[in-house]
């Protein structure tokens, strides 16, 4: 990164730090004036807008920009927790910055978390619900594919230095992206079927997989297999259809439903029928909710079918 860009970044961060400090020690606003939180949020939005402009202008420096964005986001979260004279965060507030902005929520049905963005979805079904959900999740922050791979192996799926293949259960020891010949990234929605551009690096449908299992799955549809030519860890493949092991079936189904709504894609009828069964057989668990929270903090959108599993039954055709 050249000196000019470094200077711009230092200036941006410096201005935001000043704004954060000012917001923390500012007196309470008079009636009718913007609150501390309102001012801080507007400054944060301006910072992200200017940072995105730089990212688009200098794509080679994306990793540095991304780290800076994470740092400033942490500052923003901390500033939001602390009001003028506050020592601890109010217990009425939830854990994620998006909850406090009223833009997205961890569960969507917790009244103590603030404004529920899913309120607008109440009573909707079919195409109307699908359209409403699309509007809620369509403006994510693309992290870039290299960064997405790093995040999958170093944060989202790394437990005490180990990463588990979602298809076979095989574990490897790693602190970052391993050799692609050993374990790599599975696009639950295949790249050849539309997972390109921002969709290619959308963390909601990316998972770590054994290289052989990933290669076998390829772009084949998901479904039930009765006569496998390959089988490992509960997953099966018959040359045409890939059956996911029970522990990952629901996660896989909800990732596909998310992708179909987010990117306006269609799932073949036979595959959709299997995915609907998997969604019920393997319900949302704590690990999947935690992953949803972490992804929101990274790319600023959520998978609504994790927050509200009942939405699947309210959409008759994906």
Task: Describe this entry's structure for a reader.
- Keywords: Hydrolase, Nuclease, Signal.
- Helix 2 packs antiparallel against helix 3 and helix 8 crosses helix 9.
- This protein has a 3-stranded antiparallel β-sheet. A 3-stranded antiparallel β-sheet has the order 6-7-8, covered by helices on one side.
- 48% of the residues lie in helices and 8% in strands.
- It starts with a helix and ends with a helix.
- With 318 residues, the protein is mostly helical.
- It is globular.
- Strand 7 (235-237) and strand 8 form a beta hairpin.
- The protein has 2 domains: 3-90, no CATH class; 123-314, no CATH class.
- Mean pLDDT is 82; it is low at 83-113.
Record keyword descriptors for this entry.
single chain; mainly alpha; 8 strands
Strand/helix succession: HHHHHHEEEEEHEEEHHHHH
Strand content: 5-15%
What structural category arises from helix and sheet content?
mainly alpha
Any low-confidence stretches, pLDDT <50, length ≥5? 83-113
Principal-axis shape: globular
Q: Report strand order across the widest sheet.
A: 1-2-3
| Beta-strand segment tally | 8
Distance between the termini: 44 Å
Helical stretch tally: 12
The whole-angstrom Rg is 21 Å
**What is the number of domains?**
2
Helical fraction: 40-55%
**Mind describing the biggest β-sheet?**
3 strands, antiparallel
Mean pLDDT: 82
